[in-house]
Known about the structure:
The chain has 404 residues and is α+β, with helices and mostly antiparallel strands.
Amino acid sequence: MLGNSDPNVRRxxxxxxxxxxxxxxxxxxxxLILAANEQKISPEEEQRLRLQILRNLIDETLxxxxxxxxxxxxxxxxxxQTYNRLATQRFGRTPxxxxxxxxxxxxxxxxxxxQIEGELAxxxxxxxxxxxxxxxxxxEVDDLYDRLQExxxxxxxxxxxxxLSATPANKQQVFNNARQIVEQLQQGGSFxxxxxxxxxxxxxxxxxxxxxxxxxxxQNPQLETxxxxxxxGQLVGPIEIPGGFSILYLIDKRQVGxxxxxxxxxxxxxxxxxxxxxxxxxxxxAKVDAFSKAVDxxxxxxxxxxxxxxxxADVVTNDQIRVRSLPDALQQALLKLNxxxxxPPFGSVEEGVRVLMLCGRDDPQVDSGPTRDQxxxxxxxxxxxxxxxxxxxxxxxxxxxxxx
Length: 404
């Protein structure tokens, strides 16, 4: 149904309340996803992507049609403005350059603009038909705020989520799709890209990012249990929850209400030497030992440049380096240093050997956690998300959809 097609022959693959979705529409949206992920996929994965894209296009069509029926049509000017801003801010291109780029990857401005129109239409529908009817009592917020204050010192998580809804009839199919998404992510796929394309949660527009939350804010025992044992960078799923499946990605983790040492800003000097590529192991070891001994004798950053010159080492000064931006192994080593101390030598024969000397450190301020207003906004967003999922299910149920 969704195999190779001649772009000059626009053959319908589905008709949604009379609106035609063609194979070309699917191909061009697929090209956007493949370009975003920058990796080759198997024929089986491509076929699965095509089917998911068709479902997404059907949902977009229903959202656009519903907005029109509610006299909330998104204008072409609004779509063009968002498209131009996206081209400039995310891709660093002019609209004309963006058109050329999209053509080069097998897509088109029309495909991207259709996705934009669907997102704007859906946001407009939710803002009028859902959000005004969502209420969060101040007592609920106070109760959550008190519980969070009591949890100071416990873990706080920055999670990414891909949510796929399921019914008893399609539960196994959705589970299989979710498992294949996990496999693609484990092979290097972009979590943000897959979340934007597949997730049915309201966070899809921001790549599935839930922001910094406490586990109590998930309000789901299954997800709380899983997230509690995750490590930064870990991907878990699919996790069965009421109404479907979730895939969780732990972006980062910190202590609630406590300053995170990794947010410290450091001033560093990198002292490095090169090793002859034809040096024997004994020669390389001798040079590294001498380098290490010379570094140990340096009494602070004030002596670093002169001492390095004596041993033929290079010095590079790096100010305003946030510890969090460095590899994990270096983070741990640097956080143990006092000013004037250096890390153990690291590197290789090919890249050279270096140390990092700590010249200064600005420790982070204590995070007081979310305010009551922030908690209320989050609780409202969660309820809007649940209501939006029901709204979309109703649109699908009432639609007339023909497949070719």
